[in-house]
Amino acid sequence: MPAIVLIGAQWGDEGKGKATDLLGSRVDYVVKFNGGNNAGHTVVVGDEKYALHLLPSGILSPGVTPVIANGVVVDVEVLFEELDALSERGVDVSRLKVSLNAHVITAYHRTLDKVTERFLGKRQIGTTGRGIGPAYADKINRVGIRVQDLFDENILRQKVEGALDQKNHMLVKVYNRRAIEVEEIVTELLSYAERLRPMVTDTALLLHQALNDGKTVLFEGGQATMLDVDHGTYPFVTSSNATSGGAVTGSGIAPNRIDRVIGVVKAYTTRVGSGPFPTELSDESGEYLRVNGFEFGTTTGRPRRCGWYDAPIARYTARINGVTDFVLTKLDVLTGLAEIPVCVAYSVDGVRVDEVPVSQSDFHHATPIYENFPGWTEDITGVRTFEELPQAAQNYVLALESMSGSRVSAIGVGPDREAIVVRHDLID
Ligand code: GDP
Ligand code: IMO
Ligand code: MG
């Protein structure tokens, strides 16, 4: 039985939540392996709309065991709030498992996220302000607090002291803020321990055993390839590995156990926050995509930057992640456009470039070379087979498929759970 990784192919918000939900009823475990509550996944089930941040979207499927693995940074207060909100709406959250090795986001991480952004001024990244970057920085600096530390008061106090030692100097002397009290943090973190205890475990071992027992495990990436700290548009990225390699290090499951890598890609492109975006539109076409695609952030409510589909990015994503199948989402949003431009390559200082340039400056200078495809006017939200799509929509999908380095196995035609055209089974 397979281990499947599902990742974002662009700059996030491709519809990973909906794609996970699509597979949900057929998988046994859904694992979040990177990021934290910077993610925002909207899943529409009938008349109900769910916005998930820290929890993997698989939590909405009855019978699935959701797992927050070691690669995640956990804001425990947010975790409890999300669990409570879902319980109140009748979602069974009792199976959730949380890794003892996952790192914890504390009040000082949130504070530092905000003050460092403010100090960057024009160079700011436009983070979600949730403390993600500072929590991962502490992990790499070996001064992080892990979930397991919440169960040993002495160790916890020592670690918080160690973490705050330098930070308080910075907060007071550089950022002109008040120092943070060790006891304030320790008391807060200890107060979470009792409720957290039944959820915590060695999730790497749990998942290893699940795969040995023939269970199906879906690894759900937060953020996306172009926001990956190694392979994205650094420094305008998040602080984790959002690519398929991150599913391995972020969960403790070996690479040779992974059978399938699903890339979720929008039929156009969006981005939230700063950084290069070659196909970005600042005219009425961009507004058309924003309004019709309802492109406003699930986490921060910020309007998303919108642009045309970028085939070199999809090819890059296919290569970096080993994408076996693409799920192409939001095709319905393009309905009504007379012509749909697709970026097929870039021009960098007058030279045609077919691949995403490795040099940051080149990517900043890259301007898209477009090919135009005829649009369609028919409403496609009720379509459930590829053949029922208008010929122009079929041609658009086939063109993207041929340019993007992997087959398009499913196509989103609306926000609803059922609004999807499946061409190839994503599990068998
Ligand atoms: P994620 O972060 O990748 O899970 O994506 P988000 O949930 O942040 O953003 C995707 C948005 O598009 C959500 O509001 C979804 O309900 C919506 N969505 C997903 N697939 C489709 C689709 O095929 N068509 C339309 N119109 N909306 C979709
Ligand atoms: P999902 O999972 C889109 C962006 C932020 C910012 C940068 C760094 O919903 O696709 P961070 O708070 O992570 O340090 O911010 O990354 N960002 C996202 N953009 N979708 C997301 O998640 C994102 N998570 C972070 O806007 O530019
Ligand atoms: Mg999102």
Automatic annotation (TrEMBL):
Q: Tell me the GO molecular function terms.
A: adenylosuccinate synthase activity; GTP binding; magnesium ion binding
| SUPFAM superfamilies given in the database record | P-loop containing nucleoside triphosphate hydrolases
Q: Which UniProt keywords apply?
A: Cytoplasm, GTP-binding, Ligase, Magnesium, Metal-binding, Nucleotide-binding, Purine biosynthesis
Q: Provide the reaction this enzyme catalyses.
A: IMP + L-aspartate + GTP = N(6)-(1,2-dicarboxyethyl)-AMP + GDP + phosphate + 2 H(+)
A biological process (GO) annotation for this entry?
A: 'de novo' AMP biosynthetic process
Q: What's this protein's family per the entry?
A: Belongs to the adenylosuccinate synthetase family.
The identity of this protein, by name, is Adenylosuccinate synthetase
Q: Which organism is it from?
A: Cryobacterium ruanii
